[in-house]
Design brief:
Order of helices and strands: EHHEHEHHHE
Structural class: alpha+beta
Strand content: 5-15%
Shape: globular
């Protein structure tokens, strides 16, 4: 099957240049991670939700930039306005993604919780690199997803 995977994270920037960096594998793992990280505060028991809780509370990693995302498909003017509100500064996003990737790799408990998503640290590093590229150009970043 050609074309994007059924589930994918889309990274857009406000730069006039096209970002030369891209995900080197399926980005679905990040979509699942940020979705479960978002639901973690509501008591989700999924391993990725538990991993997010550990990253936030025990390791003090700010996941808010990763949790600023929206559905890429808009069906109303209200959803379109919400999508426009998703633009964020690139530096905090790069730092959040980079710190989360490093923590997952360095923490046995996090490695165990994310074992079903083995490419998550690599995709987070790639996201950090894209956000870093945008930051170097003074550009903002928006994360959207397709399910």
């Amino acid at each position: 099957m050609n074309g994007p995977a059924a589930t994918a994270l889309i990274v857009e920037t406000t730069s006039d240049e096209e970002c030369p960096l891209e995900f080197l594998g399926e980005s679905a793992d990040i979509v699942y991670f940020i979705s479960f990280a978002h639901s973690e505060r509501y008591g989700a028991a999924h391993p990725l939700a538990k991993a997010a809780g550990l990253l936030k509370r025990r390791l003090g990693i700010d996941l808010k930039p990763l949790l600023t995302y929206a559905d890429a498909r808009v069906e109303s003017s209200k959803e379109e306005r919400a999508l426009e509100a998703m633009w964020q500064e690139a530096v905090p996003l790069a730092e959040s993604a980079r710190r989360a990737a490093a923590a997952i790799e360095a923490t046995p408990e996090l490695r165990a919780l994310t074992a079903g998503f083995p490419e998550l640290p690599e995709r987070l590093r790639e996201l950090a690199a894209m956000a870093g590229w945008a930051a170097e150009r003074g550009a903002r970043v928006r994360l959207t997803y397709i399910l």
